[in-house]
Design goal:
The protein is an alpha+beta fold. The protein is about 25% helix and about 40% strand. It has 4 helices and 7 strands; from the N terminus they run E-H-H-E-E-E-E-E-E-H-H. A 7-stranded antiparallel sheet has the order 1-7-6-5-4-3-2. Helix 1 packs across helix 4.
């Protein structure tokens, strides 16, 4: 099997898919970044080709704008974004394609987030940036919001 340039995290959430989807897409500012970081949504045109822009803000004044587009938007199931193209359909320096997906599992929901990279070097760079810890923390923040009522 060929080596993949994908990283992923997954967890079971003890809440119905409808609840998880609602929190996933409508409360992103509460779970998207590992605390103490936070995110401010700039634009969300929730359709393939629509603009997806946000700014991540760090506890020491760090500001990291993120600009991209949605590649897929499937209500109740998944959304997919990339930073390879901006909202004006201009090429950009690509880092990854991100997938955020849910599916029913038992009495709850399986959440999976994946980052697919163009090269093994980009995947290794993302691993070195703390992908597992960061995206894992985000998954747990989402889980806590969904299970918290």
């Amino acid at each position: 099997m060929a080596e993949t340039n994908e990283l992923s995290v997954t967890c079971h959430i003890a809440a119905p898919p409808e609840r998880v989807w609602d929190v996933l897409v409508n409360r992103q500012e509460e779970w998207w970044c590992p605390a103490p970081w936070r995110v401010e949504i700039v634009a969300q045109d929730r359709r393939p080709g629509g603009r997806c822009a946000m700014t991540m803000l760090g506890p020491d004044g760090e500001v990291m704008p993120q600009e991209g587009i949605y590649l897929a938007w499937e209500d109740g199931r998944r959304f997919v974004t990339t930073d390879a193209v901006t909202g004006e359909l201009e090429p950009s320096g690509p880092f990854m394609i991100g997938f955020w997906e849910i599916e029913p599992e038992g009495s709850g929901t399986r959440y999976t987030a994946r980052a697919r990279h163009w090269t093994a070097e980009a995947r290794k760079q993302h691993e070195g940036m703390g992908f597992e810890a960061g995206w894992g923390a985000v998954a747990q923040q989402l889980k806590a919001l969904c299970e918290g009522g």
